[in-house]
Amino acid sequence: MNFTVAIVGRPNVGKSTLFNRLVGKKLALVDDTPGVTRDRRPGDAKLVDLRFTIVDTAGLEQSGPETLQGRMWLQTEAAIDEADITLFVVDAKYGLTPADETLGEMLRRRGKPVVLVANKSEAKGSDGGYYDAFTLGLGEPVAISAEHGQGMIDLRDAIVAAIGEDRAFPPEVDEAETNVDVRDEAALAGAEDDEDFEPEYDETKPLRVAIIGRPNAGKSTLINRFLGEDRLLTGPEAGITRDSISVEWEWRGRTIKMFDTAGMRKKARVQEKLEKLSVADSLRSIRFAESVVIVFDATIPFEKQDLQLADLVIREGRAAILAFNKWDLVEDPQAVLADLREKTERLLPQARGIRAVPISGQTGYGLDKLMQSIIDTDKVWNRRISTARLNRWLDGVQTQHPPPAVSGRRLKLKYMTQVKARPPGFMISCTRPDAVPESYIRYLINGLRNDFDMPGVPIRIHLRASENPFENKKKRR
After folding, report:
1. Considering only CA atoms, which of 201, 202, 193 is closest in space to residue 387?
2. 100 vs 8: CA distance, rounded Å
3. Annotated binding residues, as ranges?
4. Is 468's pLDDT higher than 70?
5. For 340-347, which contacts have Cβ atoms below 8 Å and span 24 or more sequence positions?
6. How many CB atoms sit inside 10 A of residue 7's CB?
7. How far is CA 315 from CA 17, 36, 287, 474, in A?
8. Rounded distance, CA 442 to CA 401, Å?
9. For residue 142, how many other CB atoms are within 10 A of its CB?
C-alpha cells in the first residue's frame, strides 16, 4: 500500500462503519454501544482509484492512563503517530462535543495532514453539525454517510489533496522488469500424477496463525511479546479484546500473520449481543487461519472450555498447538509439566501427539520453542505422501492386523491415495465401506500418525466402494 490512514474520533461517530465501507468487508464490529472498538485494526482500503492501508481506532474518552479507556487512547495516539494522514470523524447529526474539540486541538498540534469528515450527513437536521465542524479549524469538512456510502467521491478527493498526487498515485513498477519466480503449472501437474511425487514444504510462504483461549488467558500479552511492542491493548480486566486483530511480523525471515481474538466463554454465559459478535469474529479467525494456538492458563489448565476450544479447532481441521501460558507463576515446573503432558494425551485423544509448550507472555519464556512448534505442526498439516508409499503401507498394516470379517465375509482394503492436505485426507477403495468398523479406521489413523510421523493434526480417512484405478491397466498388459 502507498500510504497509511488512521480513522479517529470520539465514540459512536461511525468510525468502524466507515472502516468497513473502505475495506469492502464487515471486518470491524459495529454496534450502537459506544466504545466497541478498543484495539487498532488495520485493513486494505479501496476508495475509487485509491489504494491505502486504513487503521480503525478506539474513540477518545477523557480518562487517566492507568484506566482501560486511557490505555485505549494511548493505542489511538500510536496509530496517529504511525499514519501518514488522519481522518477525523465527527457526528453531523448530533453536532460537536468537548471531546471533539480536545481531539481537534491535539491533531492541530501534531501538524500532520488531517481530513475532517462529517459523518451521518444524510440525517435530517445534520446541516447544523456540519457547519459547526468548521469551528475546529481543520478546514472544510467532507459530508458523508458511511452507512449508505454517500460522499465517497468527495472523501477520495480530500484524501488526494491532503496526501499529494505523487504519494497517492506512485509510478507503477514494470512487471517485466521484476524478478518473479513463475512455476511451470504443467510440469507440476505432471509431477502430481507420479505415484512417487511428494512436494517439499514451502519455507517462504506466509503463515496465518490465530491465538485463541478463554478470557484473560494472556493472548494479547503473548502477541505483544512476539512483536516487541505494546501493539495490542492489555490489562488485568477480562474480555478486553473484542475484535479479531491481525498483526504481521517476521520470525527467522518468514512472514507471520497473527490474529488476536476475543476470549471465548461457555456458550451459556454469552448473553450480550456485543460478546456474541466478538465470539463469532473469533470463530471466523479460526476458519481463516492455518495454525491455531490455544492458550491455556497454566495455573488453572484444562477447564471444560479449554477442551471444548481444542476440540473445535480439531473439528475445523486446523493445525492446533497448545500453549501453557503464565509459566512464570508455576511453583514446581517439572512436576506440573509432566502432569500437563499426561492430561494432554488422556483428554485430547483425537489429536494424539499434539504439541504442548510451556510459555510466559509476560517474560518471553518459551516463545521461540512455541514458534518452532507452530512451524513443525504446519509442515505436518501440509504434508503429502506418495500413493506408492501409502499402498505399500496399506498392504503391511493389513498383513499385521487384517480387517475383521463382517457377517462371515472378510473385508478387503484394495487401494489408498491422499486426496488432500491441510489437513491430510486419504481415500481408501474397499469392499463394503459401510461395514468397516470405526475401531479399524482409528487403527489406520494411529498407524498413519506413527509410521509417517504425523503427530497432532487431524487426519481424515474416507472409504468408498470402487475398483483399483490401475487394475484394468494391468489386465491389458
Report:
1. 193
2. 10
3. 9-16, 56-60, 119-122, 213-220, 260-264, 325-328
4. no
5. 340/298, 340/301, 340/302, 343/301, 343/302, 347/302, 347/307
6. 28
7. 33, 30, 11, 40
8. 13
9. 24
For residues 386 and 12, give the distance between their C-alpha atoms in angstroms, rounded to a whole number: 56
Nearest CA among 463, 459, 449, 446 for reference residue 412:
463
Cα separation, 100 vs 114, in Å, equals 14
Question: In sequence order, what DSSP letters do the residues of 70-93 get, joined into one string?
Answer: HHHHHHHHHHHHH-SEEEEEEETT
Whether 42 contacts 3, CB under 8 Å: no
Residues counted in the chain: 477
Question: Of the segments 65-69, 218-222, 447-451, which one has the largest average pLDDT value?
Answer: 447-451
Strand partners, 281: none
> Pairing relation of β-strands 41-47 and 50-56?
antiparallel
Q: Which amino acid type is present at position 182?
A: V
HEC string of 212-246 equals EECCCCCHHHHHHHHHCCCCCCCCCCCCCCCCCEE
Instruction: Answer yes or no: are the C-beta atoms of 356 and 455 closer than 8 Å.
Output: no
Which residue ranges make up the annotated binding site for GTP? 9-16, 56-60, 119-122, 213-220, 260-264, 325-328
In the block, residue with C-alpha cell 463382517? 406
Q: What is the 3-state secondary structure (H, E, C) of 432-473?
A: CHHHCCHHHHHHHHHHHHHHCCCCCCCCEEEEECCCCCCHHH
Over residues 103-160, the pLDDT tens digits come to: 999 898 888 899 999 999 998 888 988 999 999 999 999 999 999 999 999 999 999 9
| Sheet order of strands, 254-260 included | 245-251, 254-260, 207-213, 291-297, 319-325, 356-358
Number of other residues whose CB lies within 10 A of the CB of residue 337: 16
The answer to whether the bond into 423 is cis (omega within 30° of 0) is yes
Q: Residues 182-210: pLDDT tens digits?
A: 343 343 344 445 567 788 888 889 999 99
What residue type is 153 in one-letter code? I
The number of helix segments (H) and strand segments (E) in the chain equals 15, 17
Question: What is the distance, to the nearest Å, from the Cα of residue 414 to the centroid of all Cα atoms in its chain?
Answer: 40
Q: Which three cell numbers stand for residue 110?
A: 501534531
Cα 252 off chain centre by: 20
